[in-house]
Amino acid sequence: MSGGFRPDPQALRLAAASLRAAAVADPLGDARRLAEHAADDAAWQAALTARAARQPVSQIIGGRDFWKHRFRVTRDTLDPRPETETLVQAALDLPWQTVLDLGTGTGAILISLLAERPDARGLGIDISPAAAAVARENAARIGVEARVIVGDWFAGVAERFDLIVSNPPYIAAGEMAGLAPEVRDWEPAAALTDGGDGLGAYRAIVAGAAAHLTPGGHLAVETGPTQAAAVTAFFGDAGFGALRVIADLDGRDRVVLGRFGG
């Protein structure tokens, strides 16, 4: 460990045992990570208690690494996942100078994109005022100029963009009970599920995208691994062409991408 509190080996073993008893997937690794971010034994014990309650490590320590930066996360935001970097890479392979991120959450997608293209402009929108505040904080701390507003999808957005990206809620209501406690009990439900079949957000995004894209602009969305065919059909029905499905590093369908007009 490079810093933080340094427990003795016996304390570390006991901590790992307590997390193992709580069915934490990586008890020893999590015990070590929490120690690295604790100021003293008391803080470490409090963190271990939170982890035993299955609170995600990222929420306990207040941050998660994504792409090339560390993002602040809270209970009001979705924890940025490694597979979402597939969407960032797909977007960076496209030509664009303006980008709209729907359901921005921590701002991880938007901020990562703008950090790679300092001359570009971007807007993030989220229905949660608390999440929007976290995104603004992340942008300021990372040093990226990004506008973030509160709204429901395209509501209040008048301009057009070269690129629209989104990682929307795509878990079906019936699948929520089977999620890991770290997700089901600690992350905001509105960022996880549409309360229906898991495709509602895609219907709304695809329906509104054409009115907010420049000619030849692109729409790129993250999907669940079984949803790519349905979402691709939505794209096609709405007039998008050059349709592509991009797999993540585990080989699962992860991104649907299309071009509108032009």
TrEMBL record:
One protein family per Pfam: MTS
Catalyzed reaction equations: L-glutaminyl-[peptide chain release factor] + S-adenosyl-L-methionine = N(5)-methyl-L-glutaminyl-[peptide chain release factor] + S-adenosyl-L-homocysteine + H(+)
Homology family: Belongs to the protein N5-glutamine methyltransferase family. PrmC subfamily.
Keyword Transcription appears in the UniProt entry: no
UniProt keyword annotations, A-Z: Methyltransferase, S-adenosyl-L-methionine, Transferase
Its job: Methylates the class 1 translation termination release factors RF1/PrfA and RF2/PrfB on the glutamine residue of the universally conserved GGQ motif.
Methyltransferase small domain: residues covered: 84-175
Record has Isomerase as a keyword: no
Gene3D superfamilies according to UniProt: Vaccinia Virus protein VP39
One Gene Ontology term from the biological process aspect of the record: methylation
EC category name: transferase
Entry binding sites for S-adenosyl-L-methionine: 103-107, 126, 153, 167
UniProt protein name: Release factor glutamine methyltransferase
Protein residues bound to substrate: 167-170
EC number(s) recorded for this UniProt protein: 2.1.1.297
Molecular function GO terms recorded: peptide chain release factor N(5)-glutamine methyltransferase activity
